[in-house]
């Protein structure tokens, strides 16, 4: 599955539009990660626990979006975008969306 944040894929011709596809996941903070993040807030540095959490969330949301695009018969997703929102205290949604297309 080709994916891009541009409207077209250079060197490819779009032959069909299948519509908007999306994937999302809602993740909560882990108590251990939250505790370590509290220490990092004091001393500074990368919050590796949260970095891993966000990376896992992006991967899962993309997998779900690709699954939807494949069910629609697409072989590419263009105009890919990410969005996040807080849905509850300590939990956030990561949302990815784009346009499913067929390219040659």
Automatic annotation (TrEMBL):
Pfam families xrefs:
YbjQ_1 (PF01906)
* Tree of life domain: Bacteria
What InterPro entries does this protein's entry cite? UPF0145_dom_sf (IPR035439), UPF0145_YbjQ-like (IPR002765)
Q: Which family does it belong to?
A: Belongs to the UPF0145 family.
Q: What is the protein's given name?
A: UPF0145 protein DO021_06080
- Protein's organism: Desulfobacter hydrogenophilus
């Amino acid at each position: 599955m080709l994916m891009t944040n541009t409207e077209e894929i250079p060197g490819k011709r779009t032959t069909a539009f299948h519509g908007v596809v999306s994937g999302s996941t809602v993740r909560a903070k882990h108590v251990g990660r939250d505790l370590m993040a509290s220490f990092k807030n004091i001393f500074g540095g990368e919050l590796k626990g949260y970095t891993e959490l966000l990376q896992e969330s992006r991967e899962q949301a993309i997998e779900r979006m690709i699954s939807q695009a494949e069910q629609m018969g697409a072989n590419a997703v263009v105009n890919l975008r990410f969005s996040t929102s807080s849905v509850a205290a300590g939990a956030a949604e990561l949302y990815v969306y784009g346009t499913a297309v067929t390219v040659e």
